[in-house]
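Problem 12. The chain below contains 208 residues. Write out its predicted structure in C-alpha cell notation.
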Amino acid sequence: MSPTRVDLTVMETIHDAFRRDLDLLTRAAAGAGADPDAGERVRLGWHVLAEQLHHHHTVEDEQLWPLVRRSWRRSPDALQVLDAMEDEHELVDPALAAVGDAVREERSPAQALDHLHTVVRDHLAHEEAEAMPLIVAAVTPRDWDAFGAAQARSLGLRGAAEFFPWLLQGQDDVRTEKVLGVLPRPLRWAYRRRWQPQWAARHQVLVG
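Solution.
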C-alpha cells in the first residue's frame, strides 16, 4: 500500500544536524583558550556547516517552497507562513557571512556564532511548528518523492558521500536506518563501508 502522507524524517534529521553543529561550534569557540583542538574544530566544522546550510536553504527557496505554494495558493495564512520562511532565510545569510569573515580573518567567531545560533534555532523552530505541517497536509507522496529524486540528482555520488555521513553523525541506529532507507541498497553499502569511515577519518576533530 502506498503511503498517504509524506515522511519528513530526512528533513527533521537535517534540522537536528544543524542544531548539533551549531551547539558544537559555539561551545568550541567559547572555550577556545582551554581546548587545543578548538581552533581546528571551529574552522573545519564551520566549512562543513556553511556548505550544508547554504545548500539546504537554496533547495528550500528554489524548489520546496514553490512546490508547497502550489498546494496553498488560495490560503493567505499559509502563504504568509511561506513568505516568512523566505524572509527568515534572508536573516541567515548575513549571519553566516559574519561567522565566515571571522574565521577567514582568524578572529574569534564566538559572538557571530552566538548570533547565528539564535537566528537558525528560531527559524528551525518556526519552520517545524508552522511550515512543515503545511507540507504534510497538502504535498502528495508522489510529489515529495519527485522532490527527493531531484535532490539526489543534484547531489550526485560525490555530494551524497559527504551529505549522509555529515547528516547521520551521532544519530541512533533507528533514525540512521530510516534515513538510509531512502537510498538504494548499493548506496547503503557504500555508506557503511566507504562513505562514513572516510568522512569520519577526515573529520576526526569533529566526531571525537
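Discussion. The chain has one domain: 9-207. Students who got a different answer should revisit the alignment rule from Section 12.3.
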